Amino acid sequence: MFNEFYQIFGQMVVIAGILLVFLLFMTLVLGKILIHQDRLIFPKVLLFTIDLFYGLFKKFSESIGLDEQIVDHIGVEVRNKVNEKKFKSISDDEKLLILPHCLRNPKCEATLEPSGMVCTGCNKCVIGVLKEKAEIKGYKVFIIPGSTFLKKIIEQNNFKAVLGVACYQDLNLSMMKLSKFAPQGVPLSRDGCVKTKVDPKAVLDKMGLIEDIHNEKSSINNISPCSKDNPAKRVL
Ligand code: SF4
What we know:
- It contains ten helices and six strands, in the order ααααβββαβαβαβααα.
- The protein has a four-stranded parallel β-sheet, sandwiched between helices. Strands 2-3 form a two-stranded antiparallel ribbon.
- Helix 1 packs across helix 4.
- The chain has helices at about 1-35, 45-50, 55-65, 70-90, 125-135, 145-155, 170-175, 200-205, 210-220, 230-235; strands at about 95-100, 110-115, 115-120, 140-145, 160-165, 185.
- With about 240 residues, it is an alpha/beta fold.
- It has one domain.
- Iron/sulfur cluster binds near residues 119, 122, 123 and 124.
């Protein structure tokens, strides 16, 4: 009786193991299709695997010769795609922009307050530029040294959506925690503890500012040379 039970139990464990390996492998394949071809297939399956088997999925990726960062890369790409429409539909004054303090210039004179670094807008680094543009749009901007600040910001602010910049791992894990706020993320193009980099165009694009610039340009191009209107007035 016991032998039979252990036999069935053993078979079930083997079948579950095979299914799990298949799931991890399929998620990698679908994730690669998303990254390289920009095609999102079975997003719920991707998120289920990443969220539920995060550590195991990283080990599995390494065991087949891939960089474990692929898991976070896939996670960020899926979440960006899944939440894009909802994020765009939310008013800018209900959004937060969260930037990491490691983007700062080494000569930065920003002071640390309970809500994060207070940027003086000296424009020695990309933070000054992004902060100014985002605040004009209505975003609340925070420059944070770590995840403890993120927790406080979430507790103390009323908002419906969030745009963040961070390394792939921090971004994926933060977007996972903030999934009900239609998170959008831009990964650092050079990560580390200091002198990190981000593509400012990618952040502006998420805020809809690149689109605005394109629209402005096309409205200039569409003006007839015979028009008596001042092009600058039309753009404004
Ligand atoms: S722009 Fe802001 S964050 Fe960047 S160096 Fe100046 S004060 Fe520091």
